[in-house]
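User:
Care to share a sequence and structure tokens?

Assistant:
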Amino acid sequence: MAEDSCVIYPIGQVEKREGQTRLRVFSKYAPGLLGLGGFSHVHVFWWFGENDTPRKRETLQVHPRGDKENPLTGVFATRAPVRPNLIATTLCRIRGIDGEVIRIDAIEAFDGTPILDLKPYIPAADRPQGDVRVPQWVAGRCGRM
């Protein structure tokens, strides 16, 4: 597959209005929501386009959380907003689904942000097997894992 042959089609967009956060799925993708209401949480994959510049896409190492006390770390080992592809993911609590609209608590995305995909949170599938380890810069800032 050629390096530039990937095509991504947004399935909806984030709406933040009047103190509420919603995921509006485009009509043609709405049938894909069948059954999602049975889940408490959904992984939302979205495009972090507000952060898009050629320089930021070329940044491959950062000090996590912008803290120079943290070690220089590759972006694939961080949650840094600078990366080659601006795909973000947020685990969101589902408050309700009304037709093409999923009501959620919150998401870091801006109003109008393209939604790339949705996947239900399934504890058995989303929980790692075996021991979990994280670098000290994560454990020290986030408490016990």
